[in-house]
Write a structure and sequence with these properties.
The chain is mostly helical. The protein folds into two domains: about 100 residues, no CATH class; about 45 residues, no CATH class. The protein is about 60% helix and about 0% strand. It has nine helices and no strands. Helix 1 runs parallel beside helix 3 and helix 5 runs antiparallel to helix 6. It is elongated and about 80 Å long.
Length: about 180
């Protein structure tokens, strides 16, 4: 299908090494970049988006985006569908697709990219299942209603616990007293 003049859509794509993406992922990344700029390169216009499989969102999104750039006067339905499929090109969805890739190095790259943007203040607490600590945190989470109030309450409780001295043994506790 030849590429025609089309209305560009704005999106911020993640900084990823295109060489490390699968063929379908690379095509999606490149066509999204082209739609964002309003220009599809000659080499991309000659590429076949591949056989569309409704079971795989990636090939479905590739086919719909290709149809969008190849239709001179897209219908309202095609525009709506394109904007809906455009959601798949959001950085978090490309990273999620990388996490689900069959190749280990692509999954590891996706994980590194995600961890690169995790703020330092976010702590992932590790507890054994059914431990006293888990029961304590379940109680802590269920004490307050509403997600915003709960978040603030939990953060303040953790901060106050961090301010208290920590003892590994009872002997250390009694030495302080």
């Amino acid at each position: 299908m030849p590429v025609v003049h089309f209305e560009n859509l704005e999106v911020t794509l993640p900084d990823v090494s295109v060489e490390e993406l699968s063929t379908d992922q690379r095509y999606l990344y490149e066509i999204c970049s082209g739609i964002s700029k309003g220009i599809i390169s000659l080499s991309l216009s000659k590429k076949d988006p591949g056989k569309m499989s409704h079971a795989r969102w990636l090939t479905t999104a590739n086919g719909i985006l290709r149809l969008y750039v190849s239709t001179e006067f897209p219908s309202t339905n095609l525009k709506v569908l394109t904007e809906y499929k455009w959601i798949f090109a959001h950085p978090e969805n490309i990273l999620l697709a990388m996490l689900a890739d069959d190749r280990k190095h692509v999954r590891e790259l996706g994980l590194r990219r995600i961890l690169k943007y995790v703020p330092d203040e976010i702590r992932i607490l590790k507890y054994a299942c059914h431990s006293q600590a888990v029961e304590r945190n379940v109680k802590l989470v269920t004490e307050v209603c509403g997600s915003e109030a709960r978040d603030g309450f939990i953060r303040s409780r953790i901060t106050s616990r961090d301010a208290l001295p920590k003892f590994d043994t009872k002997r250390e506790y009694f030495q302080v007293l």
